[in-house]
Each structure stands twice: as structure tokens, then as C-alpha cells.
Amino acid sequence: MNAMNSMNVTSTDSGTTGSYPIRTEHRDIPVGDGPAMGAYVARPSAPGPFPGVLVGMELFGVDAGVREVCDRLAALGFVALAPDFHHRTAPGSELPRDPEGRKRGFELLELMTRAQVLSDVGAAVDHLRATGSERVTMVGLSVGGHIAYLAATEFDLAAVAVFYGGWLPTTDIPISRPEPTLSLTPKITGRVLFLVGEEDHLIPPAQRREIADALREAGTRHETVVYPGVGHGFLRTDRTTSADAWRRVHALLAGTAAQPPRQLSQST
To answer: Do 45 and 6 meet the contact criterion of CB atoms below 8 Å apart?
Structure first.
């Protein structure tokens, strides 16, 4: 079922003001290896075309926080699509952000394979391109950040913004197997923005160094930002840090949107 709504959304943090009225809808996207995948889509109401942005959900599902990110991106002039990566096991899940919801989220995460996730991302990219977004990027939150990094190794994504993506150097979760996702870094052709808090329990200093080293050694055009004094999930918990992160994300996405479509990035 596809349902559409219209609204006005204005982003007010310095550097990320967006004034496009937007419309939102829920879409069902065919996926070759499984049932149709639900997705939340937010887009400017104005005539397009507009560049596309995939939004990788946290383990809680495509909840209000993820939809808010999509709405904000749409107000900035992007078509934002958040796939429901739980669609095979618990479609439409919006888990509470409490210990029980986190426990259930990790149970679902253990059922999510690399092949399935890449199939889902491919279907979402195809949907965006088929509906007019030639240039596609991705923004991912936590496990969605891991998925964004993984997607950058397999698809022609102009850029990815990774918010505190965990487990990249390890094989602790199925989507980082058989080899750690970080080991695939040389396959990335677009830009990478990696945003993490200094006190993030999921991404300790040693892992942050591994990620920075892998990006540098691969010649990937990237920026790594470590925010002092904040932990995991700062996008919704720390207004000052969130404002700076949004400025960086907007600059990244707006910059790549201005490039010719499907032009592969070169290392600098």
C-alpha cells in the first residue's frame, strides 16, 4: 500500500536551512530475493528531478527519528528513502528505545545477512533512479551507518555519510561476514564522511584508528570527525553536535549532487 501526505518542513540549524515544502509516502519496493520491502519516502513537493538519498535506519526500525531525518533531507532538496531492512523478519517494526526494544533489535540484527542487505539496497537504489534521481547517496545511522559503508563498496554511490557505524572492523554481526566490512574499503569509489563521538562505547579509539587507516590506505576521499565529549546517537541527543554534523552532511550531499551523474570519484 502506498499512502501520501504533504507538509511544510523547515530546517533551522545554522548551515542546513531547507525551505522546500515536502510530501511523504510509504512505498512497497520489489526485492528480487524476498517479499516487497516497505520504505518511507520524503521528497520536495516542487517539480524535480532531485538527487536521491538512502537513509539507513537504526536497529529500532524506520521509526519517527528516521522519518525525521528523511523529512529534513527532503526540505533541503533531496528525495530521501528509508528502506525497512527488517522487512523479511518483522516488517514495519518500530521498536521502543528502551532495553526491551534494544534486545529485540539485536535479535533482528542477527537475522539480517549481508546478501539480503545488499539486495535491499540495490532495490532501493534502482527505485530512486527509476523515479528520476540519477545521482544517489546514502546517510546511515548506527547499524544503518554500517550498511551505508557496506553499500559504498558495492554500488555507485556518489557519497555516504556514516553516523557512528559500528562493527566495521569485526565479524560480530552477520552483515560484517564472512570478512569484516572494513576490509572491503578499497572497493569504495565515492566520498565518505565518518562521524563519531569520542565517548562512543560501540566504536572505541582503536577501532576509530583502524577505520581512518583503512580509508587513508585505500586512497578514499574522506573526512573523519570525532566529536569530543559525546557518545553514541548524538544526532538526536546533542543539539550542538547535531548542528555541526548536519552542516557537514549537507555540504557533502550538495557537493556531490552538483557533479555529473555516475562519475566515479578519484583518490586525492
So the answer is: yes
Distance CA 42, CA 126 (A): 16
Three-state SS at 189? coil
H or E element that contains 184: none
The mean-pLDDT minimum among 57-61, 93-97, 158-162, 257-261 falls in 257-261
pLDDT value at 77 more than 60: yes
Q: What is the mean pLDDT of residues 110-133?
A: 97
List the grid coordinates of 139: 546517510
The Cα–Cα gap between 263 and 181 comes to 24
Residue-level length of the chain: 268
Under 8 Å between Cβ of 65 and 72: no
Residues 93-109: tens digit of each pLDDT: 999 999 999 999 999 99
3-state secondary structure of 224: strand
* E strand map for the chain: 3-8, 21-31, 34-44, 52-56, 79-83, 136-141, 159-163, 191-197, 222-227
What pairs with residue 83 in β-bridges? 39
Q: In sequence order, what are the residues at sequence separation of 6 or more whose Cβ sits closer than 8 angstroms to the Cβ of residue 104? A: 93, 95
Tens digit of pLDDT for each residue in 239-266? 999 999 999 999 999 998 656 544 333 3
Q: What are the cell numbers at 81?
A: 528513502
The Cα-based distances of 28 to 120, 135, 212 in angstroms read 12, 21, 37
